[in-house]
Amino acid sequence: MAGLATLHVVCLPKKTERHHTYNLIATEYSKAIAKPKKTWKRKVLCILGVFFALAIVALIITAVMQNKPLPKNIKYGIVLDAGSSHTSLYVYNWPAEKENDTGVVKQVEECKVEGNGISHYFQEPVKAGLSIDACVTRAQQVIPANQHKETPIYLGATAGMRLLRLNNHTVADEVLSSVENSLRSSPFDFQGARIITGQEEGAYGWITINYLLKNFVEESSVLNLLPSFRKTETSGALDLGGASTQITFVSDEDIETQENTLHFRLYGKSYNVYTHSYLCYGKDQALRLQLVKNIVNTRNGTMWDPCFNPGYRRNTSTSELYSSPCVSQHTRFTTTPVNFEIKGTGDYQLCKANIQSIFNVSYCPYSQCSFNGIFQPVLQGKFGAFSAFYFVMDFLKVAHEKATLEDVKERVQSHCSRPWDQVKADFPKIKTKYLSEYCFSGVYILSLLELGYGFNADNWKEISFLGKISGSDAGWTLGYMLNLTNMIPAELPPSPPLSHGVYVGLMVFFSVLLLFIVLICWLGFRKPRCLQKGII
Ligand SMILES: Nc1ncnc2c1ncn2[C@@H]1O[C@H](COP(=O)(O)OP(=O)(O)O)[C@@H](O)[C@H]1O
Ligand SMILES: [Ca+2]
């Protein structure tokens, strides 16, 4: 009791009637009386602390409320790839505020136009425009209606139209006008329909794959500090179409021909790029060249062809074969149109010999060439092979990394020797046109890469066969749109401000830290207002 009473007295150092504690009380009382400022200071400190804590809480609330992420503003863009064999419409989208970042544009739709490529409508150009209408309507369903007006739509035509223009400039213009009219009457922002050059086709394909592979900007990660993890290298691009094929890669060597040279400055880095587009060396035109070479093997209306599976038959004619500017320069076997039947023999070696005869590797006016007297520097770095390179290798099940050049050759050879009936029975869903040509295409791809470009058993492993990269098709269309919408800056944009999540996280972390420090300080400064029991 005495203890309690004493404690009470000490806590409230007023008068006391208890004489036996007087001395002690007097001491404490005098202490309190002697330093009244300290109590006052402590109170002020307490009040300041509370205000400080309240201010921090207010700061956090303000930060969270004020720094809400912007409502996601999605932009759209459309590109039509008017290839020699077919037209595809691609819809891309990206967050508006991030359009200069790398790898943010994504393909959200591919619509394959029914029927052939637009160059096939040379006899009825109006139908070329009509053919693409269904896919334009599909794009209207994919893109929100309120964005139609501001969505750019582009059409780029490739080698099929280049060949048609060579054959008949006027008709090529009529076909282009027809697709242009169709696109102009759509609700989208029409930005042009044109035949792109082979150089552009190569360049945009290279931009697409390196953009999708995020090769242009080094990712800031701890791993980048280790040399083996640095992602500074770009990948070369190999595109195989029906009427042309492109090879594009960064070269440290002197590029001896101006028409094969491209200089890019992208995201603050300069690139010296070699590119070449071989018109007539797409796989459909190359097949014609092979057939023309093989025409000598025609007897009694039958052409025995080693590049088709045994048992395969197809009717064709010399007029059909010679209708392309790719073959008209070759000496015609006969001037009168002759119908004949192609019959497959599935002979890999003979097929290879026929195909190799369409590559002229004996003439080169430069220090080094690929084929047909075209300059090509030494192959450098990794390569991404897409379009028909991928379709064919994927069908033959050798598109994966582990397949060696030898594996691919064996696979192609064994496929070529298979009877057509068996092949058809095994793949009933694949279009007959594609299925019947996988033997030829396999041998052609091997010849183009090995004899044409100079790949060998060693650097074969540098080639990756690419269909899609992160959901977007490998091809020239994405690079084309990125370029025309100025989405690839020449210089690296200033490092982006912190994202909302990171910003809020940091705010909360530092506020809690501050509160903690204040609390520690306060506890440190604070003197116990009461004496401990033990003192008495
Ligand atoms: N699934 C497939 N299997 C095999 N070949 C295909 C497949 N899909 C498309 N192709 C071929 O890919 C090529 C695409 O060429 P395309 O882009 O139309 O021509 P280009 O680029 O020369 O203008 C054509 O030869 C076409 O036959
Ligand atoms: Ca193409």
Automatic annotation (TrEMBL):
Molecular functions (GO terms): apyrase activity; ATP binding; GDP phosphatase activity; ribonucleoside triphosphate phosphatase activity; UDP phosphatase activity
Binding site for ATP: G242, A243, S244, T245, Q246
Reaction catalysis annotation: a ribonucleoside 5'-triphosphate + H2O = a ribonucleoside 5'-diphosphate + phosphate + H(+); CTP + 2 H2O = CMP + 2 phosphate + 2 H(+); GDP + H2O = GMP + phosphate + H(+); UTP + 2 H2O = UMP + 2 phosphate + 2 H(+)
Membrane topology, from the record: Multi-pass membrane protein
Membrane-crossing segments per the record: 44-65, 502-525
Active-site residues from the entry: E201
Oligomeric and partner information: Homodimer; disulfide-linked.
Protein name: Ectonucleoside triphosphate diphosphohydrolase 1
